[in-house]
Write a structure and sequence with these properties.
490 residues, 10 strands, 5-stranded parallel β-sheet, 6 domains, Cobalt-precorrin-4 Transmethylase, domain 1, elongated, alpha/beta, 51% helix, Helix Hairpins, Methyltransferase, Cobalt-precorrin-4 Transmethylase, Domain 2, 5-stranded mixed β-sheet
């Protein structure tokens, strides 16, 4: 060959038959005596110069259990061949630097070994696919390997931008890809399968996302196009909208807000999320979570304006914390049940505080004073338990509750009654903690239960001509209605 002895030439064969080979690639292959093909399952292979000896790695795909092993074996073999005096020509479909894991491994290995590498570019699958779809590749296009995206539970794609997924090579992968994408897109989102782009067999198949693995045309030349959602739905879009509201041409009210002025609203929105959860109201929950997210993005925007931190800092911080505090998922720790997870969590938190030197002066530090009273009470009791400040058995908790009831009954004035009522509630929360009950949630549920039952009582009274707002009604009559309501619910 015309090249110096040894080394690697990586050639892109283009997306289709020999007509799509570059002139440089064709001239090189005409002068070569041998070429190693990542796969012979490519339209251009049949059009290669007749004299050239073709050796493929298809047998590696047949013998390996996973792609990582295939790519590693191919890369190792090419690197060994590169040490021959004549070197090696390695040919891949499309462009060598588009969806070619073996090329990445080969170039990295060659750099470490001091072997020269020359890359002969080829037309990738992207250009003919964009041509078939009539798309501009610079219009926010996202490009991913379908094999990689299929491994995600929540793929890192932006639903507001067009998405192109290469190497949808069979229906099994299409099924896995479909499930991954459904974490972001609706089941009936329209998508397009592009088969054999740039060849005479080119085919565009427009289907719904849920039908993705039903296509009978899927093969190694299949690409998936996913258009954006009809309404912006990304965190980035929300951040931009909030930035506009706060900007010079935005909303006067939003421009006037400060981190402190939004505190009450944030608390209210959080309470409405809890209310939606208590009522099992899915639609309202979706809306209220959006309101909370708006507050988070608004606070972050104001911080960015003051050059304190950015939204990406907030996300990066919680992402790192999640991975750091779940070593049983992303590390080598083991946890068979939730109790072990909590124990590990406390160890990690203590280690983090030790590393930063931010040790609390008290076990009760960092419990928000703005928490609802019942929730804060339970949190306080959970903290002091770590120091052994707790009853040794549940009997003591119950006895303490009865003691507080007696003291409340004996209280002689309003001040004493107020104090004893607080002690009684504190003791009741302690009992809830011993039983593993969230006192705050339990009381919210009791409020909802009473609200629902009393409304039914009102309806029954109206049916029977009992006017609840005219004069005090006999308690026995009301109790009978109340029991009837409870019986209907049973």
């Amino acid at each position: 060959m015309a090249e110096s002895l040894g080394g690697i030439i990586i050639v892109g064969l283009g997306p289709g038959d020999g007509r799509l080979l570059t002139q440089e690639a064709w001239q090189l292959l005409q002068e070569a005596g041998e070429v190693y093909l990542r796969t012979s399952r490519h339209p251009a292979v049949a059009d290669l110069p007749a004299h050239i000896v073709r050796r493929s790695f298809d047998h590696v795909y047949d013998s390996a259990d996973e792609f990582a092993a295939v790519y590693a074996e191919i890369a190792d073999t090419v690197l060994q061949l590169a040490r021959r005096p004549e070197g090696v020509i390695y040919a891949v479909p499309g462009h060598p630097h588009i969806a070619e894991a073996t090329v990445t491994a080969i170039t990295e290995g060659a750099a470490a070994a001091g072997l020269p590498v020359r890359v002969v570019a080829g037309l990738s699958f992207v250009e003919p696919t964009l041509t078939a779809l009539g798309l501009d590749g610079l219009n926010g296009l996202q490009l991913y390997d379908a094999i990689t995206v299929a491994t995600y539970n929540h793929p890192p794609v932006n639903p507001d931008a067009p998405l192109l997924l290469g190497q949808v090579y069979n229906r099994l992968l299409a099924s896995e890809l479909k499930l991954a994408l459904m974490a972001i897109y609706p089941d009936e989102h329209p998508v397009t399968l592009v088969h054999a782009a740039g060849t005479d067999e080119e085919l565009l198949e427009q289907i719904h996302l849920y039908e993705l693995d039903r296509s009978r045309h899927i093969d190694h030349l299949t690409t998936l196009f996913v258009p954006p959602l009809p309404i912006p739905a990304s965190l980035e879009a929300l951040a931009e909208a909030v930035a506009v509201l706060r900007g010079p041409n935005g909303c006067p009210w939003d421009q006037e807000q400060t981190p402190q002025s939004l505190r009450a609203g944030f608390l209210e929105e959080a309470a409405e999320v809890l209310d939606a959860l208590d009522r099992d109201d899915v639609e309202n929950l979706r809306e209220e979570l959006g309101d909370v997210l708006l507050h988070i993005v608004m606070q972050t925007q104001m911080a960015r304006e003051e050059e304190l931190f950015r939204l990406s800092d907030v996300v990066a911080g919680i992402y790192a914390k999640i991975k750091r505090r779940h070593p049983h998922v992303w590390g080598d720790w083991e946890a068979e049940h939730s109790a072990e997870v909590i124990a590990n969590w406390e160890v990690i938190k203590a280690r983090e505080k030790g590393e930063t030197g931010a040790r609390p002066a008290s076990l009760l530090d960092n419990i928000p004073a703005s928490l609802p009273a019942l929730a804060r009470s339970q949190k306080i009791q959970q903290r002091v338990r770590k120091a052994g400040f707790d009853w040794p058995a549940l009997d003591g908790v119950i006895a303490k509750l009865h003691e507080e009831i007696h003291e409340l009954a004996q209280a002689g004035n309003a001040v004493a009654q107020n104090a004893e009522m607080g002690d009684l509630l504190f003791a009741a929360v302690n009992w809830a903690r011993w039983l593993g009950i969230d006192a705050e949630a339990a009381l919210r549920e009791a409020n909802l239960r009473f609200d629902r039952r009393f409304r039914q009582l009102e309806a029954l009274a109206a049916e029977r001509g009992i006017a609840l707002d005219a004069a005090p009604v006999d308690i026995d009559v009301l109790e009978a209605l109340w029991q009837e309501v409870k019986e209907r619910e049973a």
